[in-house]
C-alpha cells in the first residue's frame, strides 16, 4: 500500500511541476537554514563537554557588592591556597593566568621566528583537573618548575616544525628563556582554554605580576581559579561557608565580596561572567523554526488551493471504494516525497554556504559534523514533523470532499479548504517577515548609534602603538619626542590605553577629601601623560591639566565622579584631596574633564581618575594627518624599532578598536539580514504559487472586466489590494510582538537608540513592495492578454 501511495504521489507531483518546484525550493531553503543553525547550536552546546570529570569541575568567581553588583570571573590571588589547604571540598585546586598577545621568539639553530601569542601561566595541578592529555612528555618533570612549559601539537609545529621538541627553548617577552617539557594533544575548538602555550605558574614571579601574589586586596581579570571537587558536594553549603572569607581577610573593605563556585558547564553560557547570552541561541533556534513554518505554510496554502482542481479525482476515488483514511495517507505521502527531496536539497545548500557561515562567525564548522547520529535523528524528526503538519491539514480537507458534488462540479472553494484558512496562514507569514525586518532595522540602528555617536573623545586618525614591558621613562620620553617631530604628526601621548575600546582596566577603591571611609563605588584609574586630553580632544570642564612629576601629586577626574559623590559643580572638586590604589596615590584634584565612553554602550560611563604614572604605560597614542598615513606609519616604526628593536611593531587604529567592541552585534546583524531575506524569499515563493492559482481561477473574470472597460492598472490593483489588506492585518499583530522583543533586547544597553513608529511602517511598506513585485508578472501577463482568449478559458 505504501509503495502504491508513493508511486501515485510521484505522478501527481510530476504533473504539477511548477507548484512542486515552489514547494520543494521553499522547504529546501527552510531546511538548509535549519541545518546551519543546528550546526551553530551544536557547536555552542558542546563546549567543554570533553573533560572526563566535567560535572565536578568548578571555577571560583566573585560577586562584588558596591553601589551595584558586579560579577568577576576571578577571585583574589590568595583564594586558591586557602581553599586548597583550609577546606576539604576539593581533590585539586589550581590557578591560571591568561596573558594576551605576548611576544615569542624561537631560535633553535634551524628556525628563527618571532610572533605574538596568547599564553597561559598554569599551576601543575591544572592538568589533573582539566583533560588536556600529553602526547609527548619526559615522564618526570611538571609545571611546578619555573621557566618550563607545555605546548600543544599545533604550536609545536608552528614554533619548531616538529613534535620532537622536548628540551627545546623559546624566549618569552624578550626576557625569560622557557624550556618545553611536554606536548599536549590539541584541544577541541569548543574549549574554554584554547591557547597553545602553558608556562609554569612560578615563572610569574619573574614578572612581579599581581596574579602571582598571595593577596586579598584586589582582583585581576586575568586570573582564574579552578577546582575539582570531591563527588556529591553541596555547592550551596560550600558557598555559604565561603561567605566568611571576606569577613576574615577584607573586614574594612567597602567592596564586599561573595565568592561563588561556577559549574564548568555554565561558563560558556553565563553572560554575567563573559559567556554567550543563551537568549541569542534561543533566538537562532526560533528563527530556524520560523523559516520552516513559513515554508510549511506555503505548502498548505498551495495544496488547499489546488484541492478544488483535484476534487473530481477525489470523487472518483471515493466512488471506486477509497476510504477517507486512504485519501489522507495518499496526500501525506505526497508531502513526504516533497519533504524528502527538500531535505536533500537543503543539506546540499547548507554545505555550499557553510564556508560563508564560518567566515561570518569565525568558526570552523565542517560538513563531517552532519555524519553524527544526532544530526540524522534531528533530520528524521524534522522530516516527520514537517510532512505530518504540512500534509495532514490538506489531506483531511480533501478526504472530506463529497463525491456527488465533486463529480457534478458543484463544489466551491470553501468546500476544499476555504479562503479563510489560507488568509490566516498568509497573515502569519507576513507577520514573521515584518518581525524579522523590524529586528534587522533596530539592531542596525543600535550599532550605528553606538559607533557613530559622540563618544566624548575623538577616535579618528589616532594610531595606538604598544609599548614593551621592558621600558623606562627616559625611553618613553625620547620616543615621544622623536615621533612628535615627524611631519604629519599633530599630537602624541603616552598612556595605559585609549579612552574607548579599552583593553586594560585598573579599578580601585578611593577616599574623597576628609571623608573617613572609602566610597561605596570604585573608580577607574587611567594612567596618562599631560598631552592625553589634547590628543583625544577630551574637553576640560574645570581647572587645568596636572604637572608632570616623579610622584603622583596631582590628578584629574571626570564628571561622573562628581555625580557619584553628590557634588554640585566641577569647581567644588578642585583642590580636594583624593586617596586611591591602597594609599599609593594621595593627590590633589586639579582638573575635571567631561564624561566620555570608556567602555561600550552596554554599561554606564565609569568614574575615572587620571594620573601621571609611567610604570603603567602600555601604549603610545599618535594623532596623525590621514592624508599621509602610510608614510607616517613607516616613520613611526623606524623610531619605535630604534628603541625596541627586539620587539614586534603592531600599530592599530583607534576607530577599528572601538568598532571591534560591536563585532558580535555586527555578526548577528548580518545573520538577521540574511534570515529576513530568506523569510521574504520563501514567502514570495508561496505568494507566486498562490497568484498562479488565483490568476488561473479568475482568467475569465479578467477578460470580462477588460471588455467592460477595466485597464491593466485596475486589474493589478484588484489582486494587490487583497494581499495589502492581509499585510496590514499582519502588521497589527506583528507590531506589538516586534516592539516587545526589541525592547527586551535593547535593555542590554545602558545607552540605546529609540524605537520609532516609522520602523514598523517601513517593514510593512517593504513587504507590500516585495509582494507587488512578486504578483505583478503573472497578473500583468494575464491582464495584457486578449479578452477573446480569456473568455474562451474554462
Automatic annotation (TrEMBL):
GO terms for cellular component: plasma membrane. It is a multi-pass membrane protein. Residues 20-240, 431-596 form the MacB-like periplasmic core domain. Keywords: Cell membrane, Membrane, Transmembrane, Transmembrane helix. Residues 286-402, 674-786 form the ABC3 transporter permease C-terminal domain. GO terms for molecular function: transmembrane transporter activity. InterPro entries: ABC3_permease_C, MacB_PCD, Macrolide_Exporter_MacB. The chain crosses the membrane at residues 21-41, 280-302, 327-355, 375-403, 424-443, 674-695, 715-735, 755-777. It comes from the Bacteria. It is found in: Cell membrane. Its main location: membrane. PANTHER family: ABC-TYPE MACROLIDE FAMILY EXPORT SYSTEM PERMEASE COMPONENT 2, MEMBRANE COMPONENT OF TRANSPORTER-RELATED. This is ABC transporter permease.
Amino acid at each position: 500500500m505504501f509503495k502504491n501511495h508513493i508511486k501515485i504521489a510521484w505522478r501527481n507531483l510530476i504533473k504539477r511541476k511548477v507548484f512542486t518546484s515552489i514547494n520543494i525550493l521553499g522547504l529546501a531553503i527552510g531546511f538548509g537554514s535549519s541545518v546551519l543553525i543546528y550546526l551553530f547550536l551544536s557547536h555552542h552546546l558542546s563546549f567543554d563537554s570533553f573533560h572526563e570529570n566535567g560535572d565536578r569541575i568548578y571555577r571560583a568567581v566573585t560577586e562584588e557588592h558596591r553601589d551595584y553588583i558586579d560579577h568577576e570571573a576571578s577571585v583574589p590571588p590568595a583564594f586558591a591556597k586557602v581553599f586548597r589547604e583550609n577546606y576539604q571540598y576539593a581533590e585539586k585546586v589550581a590557578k591560571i593566568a591568561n596573558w594576551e598577545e605576548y611576544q615569542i621568539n624561537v631560535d633553535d639553530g634551524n628556525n628563527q621566528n618571532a610572533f605574538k601569542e596568547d599564553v597561559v601561566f598554569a599551576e601543575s595541578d591544572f592538568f589533573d583537573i582539566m583533560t588536556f592529555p600529553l602526547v609527548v612528555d619526559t615522564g618526570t618533570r611538571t609545571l611546578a618548575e619555573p621557566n618550563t612549559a607545555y605546548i600543544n601539537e599545533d604550536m609545536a609545529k608552528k614554533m619548531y616544525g616538529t613534535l620532537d621538541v622536548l628540551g627545546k627553548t623559546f624566549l618569552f617577552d624578550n626576557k625569560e628563556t622557557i624550556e618545553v617539557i611536554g606536548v599536549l594533544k590539541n584541544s577541541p575548538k569548543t574549549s574554554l582554554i584554547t591557547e597553545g602555550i602553558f608556562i609554569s605558574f612560578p615563572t610569574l614571579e619573574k614578572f612581579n605580576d599581581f596574579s602571582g601574589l598571595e593577596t586579598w586586596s584586589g582582583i585581576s581579570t586575568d586570573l582564574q581559579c579552578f577546582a575539582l571537587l570531591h563527588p556529591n558536594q553541596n555547592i550551596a553549603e560550600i558557598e555559604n561557608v565561603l561567605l566568611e572569607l571576606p569577613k576574615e581577610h577584607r573586614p574594612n573593605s567597602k567592596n564586599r565580596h561573595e565568592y561563588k563556585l561556577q559549574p564548568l558547564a555554565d561558563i560558556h553560557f553565563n553572560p554575567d561572567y563573559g559567556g554567550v547570552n543563551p537568549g541569542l541561541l534561543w533566538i537562532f533556534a526560533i528563527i530556524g523554526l520560523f523559516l520552516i513554518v513559513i515554508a510549511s505554510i506555503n505548502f498548505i496554502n498551495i495544496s488547499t488551493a489546488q484541492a478544488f482542481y483535484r476534487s473530481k479525482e477525489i470523487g472518483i476515488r471515493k466512488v471506486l471504494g477509497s476510504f477517507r483514511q486512504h485519501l489522507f495517507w495518499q496526500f501525506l505521502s505526497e508531502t513526504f516525497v516533497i519533504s524528502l527531496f527538500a531535505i536533500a536539497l537543503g543539506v546540499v545548500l547548507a554545505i555550499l554556504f557553510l564556508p560563508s557561515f564560518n567566515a561570518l562567525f569565525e568558526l570552523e564548522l565542517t560538513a563531517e559534523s552532519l555524519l553524527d547520529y544526532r544530526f540524522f535523528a534531528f533530520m528524521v524528526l524534522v522530516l516527520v514533523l514537517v510532512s505530518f503538519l504540512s500534509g495532514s491539514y490538506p489531506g483531511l480537507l480533501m478526504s472530506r470532499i463529497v463525491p456527488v458534488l465533486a463529480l457534478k462540479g458543484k463544489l466551491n472553494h470553501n468546500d476544499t479548504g476555504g479562503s479563510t484558512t489560507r488568509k490566516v496562514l498568509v497573515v502569519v507569514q507576513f507577520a514573521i517577515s515584518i518581525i524579522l525586518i523590524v529586528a534587522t532595522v533596530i539592531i542596525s540602528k543600535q550599532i550605528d548609534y553606538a559607533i557613530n555617536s559622540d563618544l566624548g573623545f575623538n577616535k579618528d586618525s589616532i594610531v595606538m602603538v604598544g609599548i614593551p614591558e621592558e621600558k623606562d621613562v627616559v625611553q618613553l620620553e625620547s620616543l615621544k619626542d622623536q615621533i612628535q617631530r615627524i611631519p604629519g604628526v599633530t599630537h602624541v601621548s603616552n598612556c595605559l590605553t585609549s579612552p574607548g575600546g579599552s583593553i586594560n582596566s585598573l579599578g580601585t577603591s578611593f577616599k574623597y577629601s576628609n571623608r573617613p571611609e572609602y566610597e561605596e563605588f570604585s573608580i577607574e584609574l587611567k594612567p596618562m601623560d599631560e598631552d592625553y586630553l589634547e590628543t583625544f580632544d577630551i574637553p576640560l570642564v574645570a581647572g587645568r591639566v596636572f604637572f608632570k612629576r616623579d610622584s603622583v601629586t596631582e590628578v584629574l577626574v571626570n564628571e561622573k565622579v562628581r555625580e557619584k559623590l553628590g557634588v554640585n559643580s566641577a569647581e567644588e572638586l578642585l583642590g580636594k584631596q583624593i586617596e586611591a590604589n591602597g594609599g599609593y596615590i594621595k593627590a590633589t584634584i586639579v582638573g575635571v574633564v567631561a564624561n566620555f565612553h570608556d567602555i561600550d554602550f552596554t554599561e554606564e560611563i565609569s568614574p575615572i581618575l587620571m594620573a601621571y604614572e609611567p610604570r603603567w604605560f602600555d601604549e603610545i597614542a599618535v594623532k596623525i594627518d590621514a592624508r599621509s598615513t602610510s608614510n607616517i606609519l613607516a616613520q613611526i616604526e623606524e623610531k619605535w624599532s630604534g628603541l625596541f628593536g627586539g620587539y614586534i611593531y603592531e600599530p592599530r587604529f583607534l576607530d577599528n578598536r572601538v568598532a571591534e567592541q560591536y563585532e558580535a552585534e555586527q555578526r548577528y546583524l548580518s545573520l538577521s539580514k540574511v534570515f529576513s531575506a530568506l523569510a521574504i524569499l520563501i514567502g514570495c515563493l508561496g505568494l507566486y504559487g498562490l497568484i498562479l492559482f488565483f490568476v488561473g481561477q479568475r482568467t475569465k473574470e479578467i477578460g470580462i472586466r477588460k471588455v467592460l472597460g477595466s485597464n491593466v492598472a485596475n486589474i493589478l490593483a484588484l489582486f494587490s489590494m487583497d494581499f495589502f489588506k492581509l499585510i496590514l492585518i499582519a502588521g497589527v499583530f506583528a507590531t506589538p510582538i516586534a516592539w516587545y522583543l526589541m525592547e527586551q533586547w535593547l535593555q542590554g544597553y545602558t545607552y540605546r537608540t529609540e524605537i520609532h513608529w516609522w520602523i514598523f511602517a517601513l517593514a510593512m511598506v517593504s513587504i507590500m513592495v516585495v509582494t507587488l513585485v512578486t504578483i505583478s508578472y503573472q497578473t500583468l501577463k494575464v491582464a495584457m492578454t486578449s479578452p477573446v482568449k480569456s473568455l474562451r478559458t474554462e
